[in-house]
């Protein structure tokens, strides 16, 4: 499951890289960052070093393959924004669930395992966006980290209830994916704090 | 002391998040990043994994409470810039001192413990600013990292002289806070290198 | 070799800091970040904590010395852009090779050691650029990460063939440096993916 998540996140990173007209190596770096930063953060935080993404060459190979595929077969006619968002949602779902389960394995308590699952899910996207100096989607987008937390939380709850692992993981990931895609489709957004400020002022901050 | 520092830094992060019109979860992520990134960096660097901010739920609870408080009771009439700076200065003072003392406990030599104290103090603010793609205050502001280094250095010196822990910590934190607030109030700044360049050129860099 | 790399990378960081008109402490933070971030990333990833750059005061002293030297003797007439790029290329070469060799020492397999050498080389520059909210050079520049990978790969190959350590390291670093400088001089660039998009559109992304 980790490798599938790596692949789809790598695609989201590569698409952003191509979109920003990075060169082929920049695209590969961005696809590796998008696909591995979350897992690396989780592994460093729970003390599982060297992180799987570093010690296991299959993760690197997967992200390079995804990056090259996008680089060479990137269709300019693709509805780019939507495609990036869909792959991003799938990666988010897979990583949040896998991340939460790995944190549980390392003995973290359920609340913190859910949090680390969320970090695994959103870390790659944050690294990807920071690398191209864009405010991370997670901080602004419609129901992004919430979806990650939902997936991670369901996985942790399932483990706590001793439900069978694989169906729980699949359902948790689907719930996360569905919430994120519904949020994109229907434009659901979390509330913004009420201020009397005019939004246009913010540019000056 | 760590929890108090967490609270005030979380407030500074939440205020910036509200100011940038992030949604409620974005505000919480920013308050967690501002309050925990410095401590997490320190813990990862000294090998104390999982970091306290991850393994102890009280840190998360504190930053979430601070973030929600700001989100719901954010007064648009607050003199925002000043308030963020004051909370930031308090967090800086508390974290620098606590960070230096934790690094000493892990057996680092005094010079490096003072440096890690400074990292603990400025790390949260740097992470907060980078997340909203703002050049970190620490690199530009009046006497920011210097104040953190003063607090951390005093705490390390006190420990080296075997002075009693609590009074030393309080005085070190007060010295750091006072220096930072004085620098804000009087507009003290560190010198910038002399160049013949016209500042207006920099926009093009 | 690590200390020489620290020095030249610190100079590249300090020059960027002066160029962006940071104050003296900001310049020092930027020179420390540019010179140490790559090595710290490598050490955290392979579990060598506390990282050398933190536990050995000579790294800090070297980067502070380089930062102060640039701050006080920065010549406004220097051909700034070229100078930063040359120092950056030298640091890249030294760090990639030293990083790959350290990763080998910690038992990583050759492919991953070469990758970590590249991370060591490009990490400092990425941290430096992110701190001043600039899209990292590595993602856009002519043959940057490729040169790092070449140096690291040669060093790993040499070690695998049991060639003598010092000549291998020097030749690997020279190859990396030469490739990078040639790429700058002749304007070599890696290809960008073909899209039908007008480059001017990207500003709106």
TrEMBL record, chains A, B, C:
Q: List localization entries.
A: Cell membrane
Which residues are listed as membrane-spanning? 24-45, 57-74, 111-131, 143-163, 169-188
Q: What name appears for this protein in its UniProt entry?
A: Trimeric intracellular cation channel family protein
* The species this protein was found in: Sphingomonas olei
The answer to keyword Protein transport applying to this record is no
**UniProt KW Magnesium keyword:** no
| Homology family | Belongs to the UPF0126 family.
Q: Which PANTHER family match?
A: INNER MEMBRANE PROTEIN, UPF0126 INNER MEMBRANE PROTEIN YADS-RELATED
Record-annotated Glycine transporter domain positions = 1-74, 86-157
Name the source's superkingdom.
Bacteria
Read off the InterPro entries from this record. Answer: Gly_transporter
Keywords, alphabetical: Cell membrane, Membrane, Transmembrane, Transmembrane helix
Q: Topology with regard to the membrane?
A: Multi-pass membrane protein
């Amino acid at each position: 499951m980790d490798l599938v998540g790596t692949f789809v996140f790598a695609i989201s990173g590569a698409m952003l890289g191509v979109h920003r007209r990075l060169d082929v190596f920049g695209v590969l770096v961005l696809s590796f960052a998008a696909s591995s930063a979350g897992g690396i953060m989780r592994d460093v935080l729970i003390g599982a070093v060297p992180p799987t993404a570093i010690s296991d060459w299959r993760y690197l190979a997967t992200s390079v393959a995804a990056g090259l595929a996008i680089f060479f077969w990137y269709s300019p006619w693709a509805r780019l924004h939507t495609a990036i968002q869909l792959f991003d949602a799938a990666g988010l779902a897979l990583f949040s669930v896998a991340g939460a389960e790995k944190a549980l394995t390392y003995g973290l308590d359920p609340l913190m395992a859910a949090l680390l699952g969320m970090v695994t899910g959103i870390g790659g996207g944050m690294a990807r966006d920071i690398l191209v100096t864009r405010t991370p989607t997670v901080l602004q987008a419609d129901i992004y980290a919430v979806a990650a937390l939902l997936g991670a939380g369901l996985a942790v709850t399932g483990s706590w209830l001793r439900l069978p692992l694989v169906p729980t993981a699949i359902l948790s990931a689907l719930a996360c994916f569905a919430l994120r895609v519904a949020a994109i489709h229907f434009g659901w957004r979390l509330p913004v704090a009420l201020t009397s400020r005019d939004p246009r002022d913010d540019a000056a901050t």
